[in-house]
Amino acid sequence: MTRIHFFILPLFVLGALLLPITLNATNLAPIDNAGVQVQPLQQNGVTYLSGGIGEDEVRAIEQARGYNLHMTFSVGPENKYVPDVDVTVQNASGQSILTLKDAGPLVYVQLPPGKYKVVATRTGEERRDTADVGNGAARNLVFHWNADQ
Questions:
Q1: How many helices (DSSP H) and strands (DSSP E) are in the chain?
Q2: DSSP of 4-70
Q3: What pLDDT is attached to residue 37?
Q4: Do the beta carbons of residue 48 and residue 122 sit within 8 Å?
Q5: What pLDDT is stored for residue 127 in this prediction?
Q6: Separation in Å, CA 116 to CA 63, 98, 107
Q7: How many domains is the chain partitioned into structurally?
Q8: Domain enclosing residue 94, as ranges
């Protein structure tokens, strides 16, 4: 009986370690560029991507490199992506450096290192967060609204 446990335990641990790799493999699937409408845009010298309608666009944005602020907008208990969010990113001085209308459901931004305040508004309901971005890993912000908003 003991030998079975020693045999099964390593398989279980190996499976648990490989599961995230298997789940992320779908993000590496080929992208049909015909369905991708996302292009890098600039405002006030800040480069950003906004979109994520359809799986190809989501994968294209998620695979984009060099963006140190990632924002996701969702609604309801199913966390359904929503593309109708107004976004303002302000620097530490309170100056608006990026203002977007009907953005999302994903917005990736290239910002100089620093502290930023983000205001996301959907159907008149505001969500606020702060982001301290640098040259390392991207800062992820998730903004969520209830289904009835």
A1: 2, 10
A2: HHHHHHHHHHHHHHHHHHHHHGGGGSPP-GGG-----EEETTEEEEEE--SHHHHHHHHT--S--EE
A3: 66
A4: no
A5: 98
A6: 23, 11, 15
A7: 1
A8: 3-145
Tokens of residue 88, six digits = 């303002």
User: In this structure, what CATH number is given to the domain that contains residue 17?
Assistant: 2.60.40.10
**3-class secondary-structure state, position 2:** helix
Distance, in Å, from the CA atom of 89 to the CA atom of 94, rounded to the nearest integer, reads 9
Residue 126, SS3 per DSSP: strand
Residue ranges in the chain whose pLDDT is less than 70: 1-37, 148-149
> Whole-structure pTM over 0.70, yes or no?
yes
Which residues lie across from 118 on neighbouring strands? 89, 129
Task: Give the angle subtended at the CA of 91 by the CAs of 51 and 97, to the nearest 5°.
Answer: 50
